[in-house]
Amino acid sequence: MTNIAFIGGGNMASCIIGGMLANGFSAQQIRVSDPGEQARANIQETYGIAATSDNHVAVAGADIVILAVKPQVMGPVVSDLAPSLSATSAVVSIAAGIQIGDLQSWLGDSQAIVRAMPNTPAMVRTGATGLFANPQINSQQKESIQAIFNAVGIACWVDSEAQIDAVTAVSGSGPAYYFLVMEVMQKVGVELGLSEQTARELTIQTALGAAQMASTGSLDTTQLRQQVTSPGGTTHAAIETFKAGGIEESFRQAMQAALSRAEEMSKEFSS
Ligand SMILES: NC(=O)c1ccc[n+]([C@@H]2O[C@H](COP(=O)([O-])OP(=O)(O)OC[C@H]3O[C@@H](n4cnc5c(N)ncnc54)[C@H](OP(=O)(O)O)[C@@H]3O)[C@@H](O)[C@H]2O)c1
To answer: What is the pTM assigned to this prediction?
Structure first.
């Protein structure tokens, strides 16, 4: 049985644990540490998982240690924890902007380390996580870590650490892009005469339906769009208007801005 310790029992840890328990992991193989009495009580009462205020106790015997604290406190937390970590355990950081090089400087060069970039839909088990490992990781550790993040959605390995910034621009920040599109569609739906409730229901169901079609069918997104865009029809009129407004360039610039900000944040947190 793989033993897993979470350092930090906040929002992200809690949602990953919920997904793990719903997907075959047992409460006995998970341990959590958090300084907050309320956070520990939540974890214990909601999931029946042992929670401690002592990070060193949590990592004893752990095969996988998931660092789920805020990036700002990662340095002191990891440096303090380093002497208690087993050389054979894999350490997974979900903190935005904390680089493998920094983690290695606190933990030593031989430690197996993974950077994970999950997103908020993990809370409803439809998350998308990008994963990158240093070469010290073995295939069994990779498999176990993939299973943890698959429990809250899907998880993909990327080939370089720089690609984690691209993951941030696509899926890390991505839910907000869709929220923005839905926000605008609802607003304009009301301007076109629908009630708030009808505009909201139709917008959300349309987003769900489109995502479902894109994820389950055999057609790619271009084919799906072309399929519903008859020349001279209503969708065609809308799509041509989007194109004339420069939608592709607008997304390119926005996602480039997210990537640049992720790169900057990595430098800010770097020791
Ligand atoms: N939320 C997201 O959508 C998301 C997405 C991708 C990545 N992440 C990353 O996930 C990490 C956690 O985010 P979150 O939203 O779950 O934050 P959070 O809810 O604030 O959880 C962090 C927890 O760590 C605890 N903590 C603070 N110092 C600690 C220490 N020394 N030892 C152990 N635990 C300690 C905090 O306790 P106190 O509150 O008492 O300080 C808090 O309960 C962050 O690094 C973030 O970048 C989050």
So the answer is: 0.93
